[in-house]
TrEMBL record:
Protein family according to the UniProt entry: Belongs to the acetate uptake transporter (AceTr) (TC 2.A.96) family.
Protein name per the record: Piso0_004608 protein
Cell compartment(s), UniProt: Membrane
Topological category with respect to the lipid bilayer: Multi-pass membrane protein
Bilayer-spanning residue ranges: 67-88, 100-119, 139-156, 168-186, 192-211, 223-243
Length: 264
């Protein structure tokens, strides 16, 4: 193995320990190792950590979860809910009644994501806590619109246009939030960043569909939701598949570094 080469960390942090990483070394015949504070990690393990742990920090070691990786079940909850909602939104099989979708939105997409977000805060992953802790309540709020006992839809009476516009405003706010989240993923991997981009695109298209009444835009939003669900599943498997339990593991493709380059 070749001797390690120092890399300027610029105040990088170890997400598990919440301590600044003082030195990053790249080593190996093909630069396949990253050494963080005298601990050696395989570079592909760090790349896999992005999607599977919802941690966008380039030099965050693959965490040792003593209590389990809560981000994975949060990702799973989002992915299944988004995928099925996308099918419903595109009008697949002529389904119009949203009751079954509401069951997923409330219990799997909503409650489970919120719990996962709270647990990610406990273990110190601020990004995952913010994302999961926000999108969980988003699903809960979105599902409440279609539950009669909440009286949200009933409050608009027969004014369907006003209801659609109100839902559109709700989705516009979440679109803005999502694209702010996307800004925090540019130092991660392609599939990690692409997931949040597709979430933002889905919300933007559904917001536009509600505000404009365009059926084609709504269908496009449903297709985007299906893609977001599939990409979410990719990141989910990246978080649970290892050489110990699977013959197939997913290695992330890092996004290019812009601006100041890392010196080897």
């Amino acid at each position: 193995m070749s001797s390690g080469n120092s890399v300027d960390t610029e105040n990088k942090y170890d997400s598990d320990k919440s301590m600044p990483i003082s030195k990053v070394l790249i080593s190996g015949d093909n630069d396949e190792y990253v050494i963080l504070d005298n601990k050696r990690y395989m570079k592909h393990d760090l790349m896999r950590a992005f999607g599977g742990t919802l941690n966008p920090e380039r030099y965050a070691p693959y965490p040792e979860h003593k209590f389990g990786n809560a981000a994975v079940i949060g990702l799973a909850g989002f992915s299944l809910t988004a995928f099925v909602l996308g099918l419903y939104t595109t009008g697949a099989m002529g389904i119009k009644i949203p009751n079954m979708i509401v069951a997923l939105v409330i219990f799997y997409g909503g409650v489970m994501m919120f719990i996962a977000g709270v647990w990610e805060m406990v273990i110190g992953n601020c990004f995952a806590a913010t994302a999961l802790g926000s999108y969980g309540p988003f699903w809960l709020g979105y599902g409440a619109i279609f539950i009669k006992s909440f009286g949200i839809s009933a409050a608009y009476g027969d004014d369907a246009t006003q209801l659609k516009n109100a839902i559109g405003f709700y989705l516009v706010g979440w679109t803005i939030f999502t694209f702010l989240i996307v800004l925090c993923t540019f130092k991660s991997t392609f599939m990690f960043s692409f997931l949040f981009f597709m979430v933002g695109l889905t919300l933007a298209l559904l917001a536009a569909a509600n505000l404009s009444g365009s059926a084609n835009t709504q269908t496009a939003g449903g297709v985007a939701a299906i893609i977001a669900g599939v990409v979410g599943w990719y990141n989910t498997v990246a978080g649970i598949a290892t050489i110990h339990n699977s013959y197939v593991t997913f290695t992330g493709i890092p996004l290019p570094i812009l601006g100041k380059q890392e010196a080897h």
